[in-house]
């Protein structure tokens, strides 16, 4: 990550300048310093533990500051912890400045929103009915600001379209930050109670349990990703012909699923299906996968068994869910001319229809040993021509719409190998080869 684009660095500098502007009123603010410094120190110490053990952020402390102090003082709470946080990848200074700037801006905006709705007076008076609306609004503003900032840095850093970079960031942060907002509100109310700040700090103990559960979830997701990577690498080693193809199909499948409005959990499962759609090639003899000449009818039947092999290979991987049906049926066609079972129309599971379109699109837009890559518009036109016979028109329309809007920017970690020349006559003999 040392080669961060110049645009991303400029974006970080602009965010840092904005954060400093939020802190300028501190020079004239009469807020007592000791509560602010106490929360800042608590956040700095707790942040190191939270990131190392739980891969999380101490949002309850930040939100408690937003509920207790004026905006400039609240924006100071995350600053020391962010600037002193551990950084696993370089450049460390830039990453620390970015963390500090995004949190400072987010907490400042949340505190201003909370104060504008009369939240500070309600917290001081422990007025329960009046507490919730300002707190909810502050949480929503914090999530919105962080989502906009994160989307803004992802666009230049990763070379993504701005809309795609921001997609889903707000909704994914809403649930965890909302729970932390409730804890932050409890801290703020207890801070003004007769028991004082000590009682407020006790709120963090149950939060530790929730962080542990959240960390377990992330470890489980990491194990899922490692399983997927291992299977894809095994396929790439066995069949260099499709190196990088699996990742691109997974990406195109994800784009289609999101365009169709599927929820994020299902989108993730369909992405897994796209990545693993050819995992059954591990059960096909290598000599057939690497054969340069035309396939005999018997050899073709052997290769056409790879969806069933893939279904069996992934049988024990429970987190794949309906992705296994896509692995089994991604070569089925709406008119019944596909394999392995010749399913027709709606008999083909929806994830399989998504992956079929993504698979065909990447096959046409990638250079193969027997054909040159087609331009993206030509590939989309071919998909539209075959829609209704081979492919589900809904999936084709979704892919066409998302590419027309955002373009096609495949992110692939594997390089396409230089393949030996092959006679064009062999092209129709390859299962899955497109006209």
Question: Radius of gyration from the CA trace?
Answer: 27 Å
Number of helices: 21
| CATH architecture verdict of the largest domain | Orthogonal Bundle
What is the CA–CA distance across the termini? 41 Å
**What is the strand tally?**
0
User: What is the overall silhouette?
Assistant: elongated
Structural class per helix/strand content? mainly alpha
Percentage of residues in strands = under 5%
Residue-averaged pLDDT: 81
- Proportion in helices: 55-70%
What about the largest sheet? none
Oligomer: single chain
Can you identify the CATH superfamily of the largest domain?
Hypothetical protein af1432
CATH-assigned fold name of the largest domain: Hypothetical protein af1432
* Element string (H = helix, E = strand): HHHHHHHHHHHHHHHHHHHHH
Low-confidence blocks of residues: 413-435
**CATH classification class of the largest domain:** Mainly Alpha
Q: How many distinct folded domains?
A: 2
InterPro entries: Cyclic_di-GMP/3'3'-cGAMP_PDE (IPR052020), HD/PDEase_dom (IPR003607), HD_domain (IPR006674), HD_GYP_dom (IPR037522)
Keywords: Hydrolase, Membrane, Transmembrane, Transmembrane helix
Biased composition (Low complexity): 424-435
EC number: 3.1.4.-
């Amino acid at each position: 990550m040392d080669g961060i684009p110049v645009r991303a660095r400029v974006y970080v500098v602009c965010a840092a300048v904005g954060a400093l502007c939020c802190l300028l009123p501190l020079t004239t603010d009469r807020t007592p310093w000791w509560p602010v410094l106490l929360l800042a120190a608590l956040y700095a110490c707790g942040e190191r533990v939270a990131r190392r053990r739980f891969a999380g952020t101490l949002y309850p402390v930040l939100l408690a500051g937003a509920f207790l102090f004026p905006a400039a003082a609240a924006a100071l709470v995350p600053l020391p912890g962010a600037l002193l946080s551990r950084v696993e990848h370089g450049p460390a200074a830039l990453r620390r400045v970015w963390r500090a700037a995004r949190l400072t801006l987010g907490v400042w905006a949340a505190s201003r929103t909370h104060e504008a709705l009369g939240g500070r007076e309600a917290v001081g008076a422990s007025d329960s009915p009046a507490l919730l609306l300002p707190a909810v609004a502050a949480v929503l503003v914090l999530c919105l600001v962080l989502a906009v900032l994160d989307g803004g840095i992802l666009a230049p850093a990763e070379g993504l379209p701005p809309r795609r970079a921001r997609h889903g960031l707000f909704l994914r942060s809403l649930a965890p930050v909302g729970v932390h907002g409730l804890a932050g509100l409890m801290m703020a109310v207890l801070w003004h109670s007769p028991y004082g700040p000590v009682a407020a700090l006790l709120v963090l103990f149950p939060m530790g349990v929730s962080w542990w559960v959240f960390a377990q979830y992330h470890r489980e997701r990491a194990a899922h990703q490692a399983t997927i990577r291992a299977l894809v690498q095994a396929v790439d080693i066995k069949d260099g012909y499709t190196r990088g193809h699996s990742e691109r199909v997974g990406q195109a499948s994800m784009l289609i699923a999101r365009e169709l409005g599927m929820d994020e959990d299902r989108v993730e499962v369909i992405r897994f299906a796209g990545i693993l759609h050819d995992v059954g090639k591990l059960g096909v003899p290598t000599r057939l996968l690497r054969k340069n000449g035309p396939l005999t009818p018997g050899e073709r039947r052997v290769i056409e068994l790879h969806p069933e092999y893939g279904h069996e290979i992934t049988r024990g991987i429970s987190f794949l869910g309906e992705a296994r049906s896509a692995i089994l049926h991604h070569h089925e066609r709406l008119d019944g001319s596909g394999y392995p079972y010749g399913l027709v129309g709606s008999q083909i599971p929806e994830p399989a229809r998504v992956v079929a379109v993504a698979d065909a699109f990447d096959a046409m837009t990638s250079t193969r040993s027997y054909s040159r890559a087609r331009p993206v518009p030509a590939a989309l036109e071919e998909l539209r021509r075959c829609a209704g016979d081979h492919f589900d028109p809904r999936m084709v329309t979704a892919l066409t719409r998302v590419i027309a809007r955002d373009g096609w920017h495949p992110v692939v970690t594997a390089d396409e190998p230089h393949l030996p020349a092959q006679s064009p006559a062999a092209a129709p003999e390859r299962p899955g080869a497109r006209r």
